[in-house]
Amino acid sequence: MTAIFFLFCVCVIVIISGASAQTSCDNNNGNYTVNSTYYNNLNILLSSFSTHAEINYGFYNFSHGQGTDKAHAVGVCRGDRTQEECLKCLNDSRVTLTKECPNQKEAIVWDGECSLRYSNRSIIGLMENQPTVLLYLTLEVRGSVEQFNATLKSLMRNLTRTAASGDSRRKYATGSASAPDFQTIYGYTQCTPDLSSEDCTKCLDEAVSQIPDCCRGRAGGNVLKPSCRIRFDPYLFYGPTLKLDTDAPPPTTTPPPSRFTNNTSLHSQGKSNTSRTIMAIAVPVASVVLAFSLLCIYLIVRKPGKEIEIGKKEDSDDEDEVTLAESLQFKFETIRVATNEFVDSNKLGQGGFGAVYKGQLSDGQSIAVKRLSSASGQGDTEFKNEVLLLAKLQHRNLVRLIGFCLEGRERLLIYEFVPNKSLDYFIFDPIKKTQLDWQMRYQIIRGITRGILYLHEDSQLRIIHRDLKASNILLDENMCPKISDFGMARLFHVDQTQANTHRVVGTYGYMAPEYAIYGQFSTKSDVFSYGVLVLEIVSGRKSIGARHGETVEDLLSFTWRNWKNGTITNIVDPTLINGSRNEMMRCIHIGLLCVQEDMAARPTMASVVLMLNSYSITLPVPSEPAFVVSSSTRSFPNMLAWEHNSRETGSTESTNKSAQYSVNEASITELYPR
Hints:
Elements: E1 2-5, E2 11-15, E3 21-31, H1 37-47, E4 59-64, E5 71-77, H2 83-100, E6 104-111, E7 114-119, E8 132-136, H3 145-164, E9 171-179, E10 183-191, H4 197-209, H5 211-215, E11 221-224, E12 228-233, H6 262-265, H7 273-301, H8 319-328, H9 332-338, E13 347-351, E14 354-360, E15 366-372, H10 380-392, E16 401-407, E17 410-416, H11 423-427, H12 438-458, E18 462-464, E19 473-475, E20 481-483, E21 490-492, E22 498-500, E23 506-507, H13 513-518, E24 520-522, H14 523-539, E25 546-548, E26 551-553, H15 555-565, H16 581-594, H17 605-613, E27 641-642, E28 661-663
Parallel strand pairs: 1-3, 2-8
Antiparallel strand pairs: 3-6, 4-5, 5-7, 6-7, 8-11, 9-10, 10-12, 11-12, 13-14, 14-15, 15-17, 16-17, 18-21, 19-20, 22-24, 23-28, 25-26, 27-28
Helix pairs in contact: 3-4, 12-14, 12-17, 14-16
């Protein structure tokens, strides 16, 4: 929180640095003490906002008390905020002012979604330009600054005209414009609705004229004034404007008080008593009649249906999910600051679903932010499903979800940052693979096994990952493996064994044959992928493209040929000079059992855990694996896309140059409670 203390004729320029609100405390208009008359009037006034249920347009202007101890307050919210969101923002702002301006009789706070102002003088209906706070982003404009400024000026002129034409409930406008070099400018203008159209235009024009003073060459900025505010930004920061009830008449605007006498600056108490009495009776009666009519219509036309929202389902016990989802939600502004405006130098990777950025929260915690692209094909429902899924998963061998953001068009997933990149970064590099001795590789295999077992049997939901591969195994500072990327996961009923899909997703080379060819998937599909992964770790070879002499054969063919010929040591990575050969041979044996063509013959992950932990268990003889990814069968009609592997929570800055053939599709997670 950044508090700004200054006289009311001062203009302050601030670099946006993560502060969620800006405050101004007037030290020249008198102070109050705790439990004084003004203190009590102010508390009663500010706490009364929530009692006005009839106000659903985000503008509160009231007074309370008498004489010089009378308190006046104006609260206004952005036009995309619901009544509940508006009241929460204003209440938070009230707490902020109490902390930052503990005894000043006049103060103002600007939050990103609302502003709150109070004074011991009448401020309702007055257009005031001071104090002014200017803020700008550190992100600079690309290309021609002159062309950018011309586009920005035109946008702000149009938004000023729209906002000033509003009524006494709302004077607010949002819009966007295309700037040079494929940039988009998002902007909004807002006045306190108690201003006249002329005063609103005058206030906004002055705010727009101050943009060059603070923000020339900057991609975003704010101008904050007591009576109006403007903002422009390279990122969408607002939602759809909420519609006003066109049948309800706007509230009567209080005439601007005189600037010369205290007597005429107070509200006229007796001028409209009769009209207020009529309104006090008519409005509640009309509201009851309207509400009753709407209820009747709803009961007649409603149809039973289901709707999934973040953390909301029909069961009463799903209230915990609501609480969980709310506790995980981040503001977009917070993440934007954490990633330094999503600067390219913080980009960890680029995948089909969007980019992944490294960031740091204000408490010093490192994070990885998956910023979903609008072209990813993933809708809000899929995004919410992934959030619900990830929020339920807590295991040391799974990447932990820290939070999410769903604001405007922005959809972000915030994960723990895993510093040592992904397994494929090491295992397929002739130099880096030497850093993984056998003991380390064996621990990685065991960790992956525990993670998959948790997904299949020990978590609250039975989860089929469907895209297990080396690039989705991330390594922490202790080289502990963490399974990542659940965008393709599917949830099963506890007693469900398999299912079909019309669209195959995943990476060829790791796909089970029944899934790649027929679209049938089950826990045994993940077992197949796990088997390929184990063989890759032991051999240091990719599932596709292992070279044998002058020919190229896939890893499964290579492994099976050496298994049959009794030359199993040829499968082991030559860099593994030390380590238990028995463990290596047993892992190869288990890998072959997992990639058998008959999925019924493949072991469960629970069985694999026993095989790894106990040498007293005799392993069955594996049958020939399915060779579905040989050079002659690498092309399935309408099913292939070139995938650049995203390091979802790793720390590589480039995409994988040796990407597998894969199908890249947005999350289609479905919710089936266990």
